[in-house]
Model the fold of this input.
Amino acid sequence: MSDKHLSTQFDAELSGICARVLEMGGLVESQVALALHALTKASAESAEQVLQVETRVNRMEIEIDRDLQATIALRQPAARDLRLLIAVSRASANLERAGDEAARIARIAQRLAGTGIAPRMPLADLAFEADLAIAQLRKTLDAFARLDAPRAFEVLAQDDQIDREFEGLLRKLITFMMEDPRTISASIDLVFVAKAIERVGDHAKNLAEAIIYVVEGTDVRHAAPDAADGVVRRGRG
Done:
């Protein structure tokens, strides 16, 4: 079998695996959006749909990992191809964990659907934080599809915005609990929701770092967002 034919087969395998990661990402993105809908609209039905999708996402992660292991064992890739396979593994793991956060929100939505939430609770703020996290996830998936490092750097630069929203929500919820002890139970639940949304943003950031690793060959994990570009420049030098 010719080297060219082997290369074509490998490219086809890579393309198929990456396509499934993007499909998985689309499912997780819809999970997060539906989980927030379940919470803000007190829809137990929407929450149950999120939990049903979680099973599919978990199965996809296992299937992608299995195919990755087979491809690495058979093709023994090197350099950028190997980095891409490592990034795909990181991507599927982070997407699965983001799906877990959506499921966590859905379970809280189920619990609150029967008890109700006080009208003054900051559900609009939670929805805004979720919109930011979903936008980050969508941008990261777009960068993954194109192996677009500049787009991935944008995700890193914007991660602090979600963190600030989480901190603002936390202060509001603490204020609600102090002013009206009757809101303590629901407020604690919403703190967990806000944290779950913030973690979705973190998983999008992790995937963006993996994309930069593929394209630039430099590991920018644990580097401050404004220092990541400098890490890459030093790696090139």
About this structure: The CA atoms of residues 22 and 141 lie 7 Å apart. The mean pLDDT is 88. The first helix runs from residue 3 to 40.
